[in-house]
């Protein structure tokens, strides 16, 4: 009995140390394994421009940043898992009709969104004009009488609010034909 007790007292520090190292290794290994098997946090990740949420619009809520790379007309942009496409009735300066198609990450039309367009000339400082788009059919939002009064490059930021989904902004840059001031 004494021999066994002497053996235990000598090996106890080694056993405790080994147990500690195994527990530490398990803490490191298990989370890495779990992360590797977990699905991606953003199932709608895409190589297309993606907007991200950032603080600071003064309302206390997160305000999305515009897509990092503006896209042109009829080119889909992804913002907060929504695919947004902007088209225009004509490429001439003047009052225009801008049409947005908005789909969710599954390609289904988005309904019930609040959609605002903010336009400004990239060549002259006329300020920013804001227009509300109305849903005309499932996933299609139209802003009529949008003042794009001169030829040249224009930028349109599409601000989308969707209950239960958050807010997103997609940015579009395009050129219009017509006189420049």
What does this protein look like?
With 181 residues, this protein is α+β, with helices and mostly antiparallel strands. Helix content is 20%, strand content 42%. It has one helix and eleven strands; from the N terminus they run αβββββββββββ. The protein has one helix at residues 2-37; strands at residues 50-51, 53-55, 62-64, 77-79, 82-88, 94-103, 114-121, 129-137, 140-148, 152-162, 166-176. The protein has a nine-stranded mixed sheet, with no helix packed on it. It has a two-stranded antiparallel sheet with strand order 2-3. The longest helix is centred in the N-terminal third of the chain and has 36 residues, at 2-37.
Strands, helices and their partners?
Elements: H1 2-37, E1 50-51, E2 53-55, E3 62-64, E4 77-79, E5 82-88, E6 94-103, E7 114-121, E8 129-137, E9 140-148, E10 152-162, E11 166-176
Parallel strand pairs: 1-4
Antiparallel strand pairs: 2-3, 4-5, 5-6, 6-9, 7-8, 7-10, 8-9, 10-11
| SSE run | HEEEEEEEEEEE
> Whole-Å distance between the termini?
103 Å
CA gyration radius, whole angstroms: 28 Å
Q: Looking at the structure, what is the overall shape?
A: elongated
Q: What's the number of extended β-strand segments?
A: 11
Structural class: alpha+beta
Unreliable residue runs: 20-43, 45-68
Output the strand order for the largest sheet. 1-4-5-6-9-8-7-10-11
What integer is the average pLDDT?
75
């Amino acid at each position: 009995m004494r021999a066994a007790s002497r053996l235990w007292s000598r090996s106890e520090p080694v056993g405790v140390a080994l147990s500690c190292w195994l527990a530490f290794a398990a803490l490191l290994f298990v989370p890495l394994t779990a992360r590797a098997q977990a699905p991606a946090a953003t199932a709608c990740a895409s190589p297309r421009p993606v907007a991200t949420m950032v603080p600071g619009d003064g309302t206390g809520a997160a305000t999305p940043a515009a897509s990092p790379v503006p896209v042109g007309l009829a080119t889909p942009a992804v913002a907060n898992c929504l695919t947004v496409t902007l088209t225009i009735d004509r490429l001439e300066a003047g009052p225009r009709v801008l049409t947005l198609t908005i789909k969710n990450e599954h390609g289904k039309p988005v309904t019930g969104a609040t959609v605002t367009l903010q336009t400004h000339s990239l060549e002259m400082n006329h300020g920013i004009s804001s227009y509300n788009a109305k849903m005309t059919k499932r996933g299609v939002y139209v802003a009529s009488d949008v003042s794009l009064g001169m030829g040249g490059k224009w930028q349109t930021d599409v601000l989308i609010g969707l209950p239960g989904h958050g807010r997103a902004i997609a940015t579009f840059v395009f050129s219009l034909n017509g006189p420049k001031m």
